[in-house]
Design goal:
14 strands; twelve-stranded mixed beta sheet; two-stranded antiparallel sheet; alpha+beta
């Protein structure tokens, strides 16, 4: 290993770098363009606009897009969207929405209890241990994964948006998150002190119960009280009036969605050395409902990953998926394409990495969840995919995005499909007990954009 003094930047180096910069014929042209317009605008490649025309050989009609506004509930919106597509088709309810605020309430409540349990599980570790530091960095947040929403629905059901509509804090969650996280950290102090002083299990349980009661009250103040029973009143697309009385959130789910959520499984593509294909994985300290459904992923090749999504689309059902949406994408145009920007040519440097390298070196992870509602198959092979986002209608094509197949290869990490589409070998692999990954593994990232 070289001496650190040898690696310090010298004035001679800086002079040499400046001389090399001055010698470039295009240096001032690029500097003027980038300094005024920024890297993205200057490197934008309009070829992507023509390649990403929103026309697809398989195109599901799923109505207007929803809008998560200033919250990190993309995973929740995407999952509920796949369910409302099914419900809307069955009951002729165009533009109907399920309550994202209702599931948001219970997710926050359950995440708080999950955090308390993790605090107690790590109470014998010092504050500077990596696991304790990881817990305290973000006690809870808006983000999540498919299995986490399934855990909420299996326990609490769902309701129409009309029964529990949006509030200020559901649509703009930063104030709620900062307040709740402050409370959870304060409670962590108390719980760790109780363990350190040898408090009995009953004393700890009593303190925890009081804490949860305060969390519940905070959530009622900010998100409203969760519905327990309600009447579902609506007019369908044929203008026929309907009313269904005395429903509970669980009976509503059973009657109007009726999916067996055990049939829907998470499929990932993580081509890193530590995750062999056709094996399952879970993540330590990731979840929301204690005793509920755990996060579980089956890792497959990208070819299998896409084929499973196509099979579900061909059957007329949309596909929940997770990706790194900020990579090589134009939010306003609604284009996700490796050709959207050419930074390498603009800056004359090689920024390329493999998918595995990006995961291993923290350059990429799942940041956003959306719904695939179409695909363009040419000679049986996908070229681009139709994506329903949850950022409202002012972006993309009335809220819909186009994702190139090459972009999917590089930046898509998860799809959720009915396990009936899996091969016999894949079903057998998916049923196996998962390997537990460390809490900070990139496959434990929470979609929250």
């Amino acid at each position: 290993m070289s001496n650190t003094n040898d690696a310090a930047i010298s004035s001679e180096q800086i002079d040499r770098y400046q001389t090399l910069f001055n010698a470039r014929k295009d240096a001032k042209v690029v500097e003027r363009a980038v300094s005024h317009q920024g890297i993205l605008a200057t490197s934008a490649d309009f070829k992507a606009d023509t390649d990403m025309t929103p026309v697809f050989s398989i195109d599901l009609d799923t109505g207007k897009v929803a809008n998560q506004k200033q919250s990190g509930r993309c995973w929740m919106f995407a999952a509920l969207n796949t369910m409302r597509h099914h419900l809307a088709d069955l009951f002729k309810l165009t533009d109907f929405e399920l309550s994202q605020n209702y599931t948001f309430f219970w997710d926050k409540f359950e995440k708080s209890n999950y955090f308390y349990q993790n605090v107690l599980n790590t109470a014998d570790q010092p504050l500077d241990s990596r696991k304790v530091a990881f817990l305290m960095t973000t006690p809870q947040q808006d983000g999540g994964q498919w299995d986490m929403l399934c855990a909420i629905i299996e326990k609490y059901g769902i309701v129409p948006k009309s029964v529990m509509p949006e509030t200020y804090s559901s649509s703009k969650s930063s104030e709620l998150n900062s307040t709740l996280n402050k409370k959870l950290r304060k409670d962590a102090v108390t719980l760790r002190q109780l363990v350190a002083t040898g408090a009995t299990s009953d004393e700890i349980a009593s303190a925890r119960d009081k804490m949860l009661g305060e969390v519940y009250r905070l959530l009622c103040y900010t998100l409203g009280e969760p519905a327990q029973t309600f009447d579902f009143e609506y007019r369908d697309d044929d203008h026929q009036y309907h009313i269904d009385r005395n429903l509970t959130p669980k009976t509503f789910y059973d009657k109007y969605v009726g999916w067996n959520l055990d049939d829907y499984v998470s499929i990932i593509n993580a081509p890193t050395d530590d995750k062999p294909y056709n094996k399952t994985y879970t993540i330590e300290m990731l979840g929301n409902v204690l005793g509920g459904r755990e996060v579980k992923h089956l890792n497959v090749t990208m070819a299998d990953f896409k084929q499973l999504a196509i099979k579900q689309l061909q059957d007329g059902q949309s596909v929940w998926f997770g990706c790194d949406v900020g990579q090589s994408s134009d939010r306003q145009k609604g284009i996700m394409s490796l050709d959207a920007y050419d930074k390498n040519a603009l800056l004359d440097m090689d920024l390329s990495m493999t998918k595995a390298q990006r995961l291993d070196y923290a350059e990429s992870l799942m940041t956003h969840a959306m719904v695939i509602t179409g695909v363009d198959l040419v000679d049986g092979k996908p070229t681009k995919w139709k994506v329903e986002n949850s950022w409202g209608e002012k972006v993309g094509t009335k809220g819909y995005f186009v994702m190139s197949d090459r972009w999917m290869d590089e930046y898509c990490y998860q799809v959720v499909v009915n396990k009936k589409y899996l091969s016999d070998a894949q079903r057998q692999a998916q049923a196996e007990a998962p390997t537990t990954l460390l809490p900070w593994d990139p496959m434990g990232a929470l979609a929250s954009n």
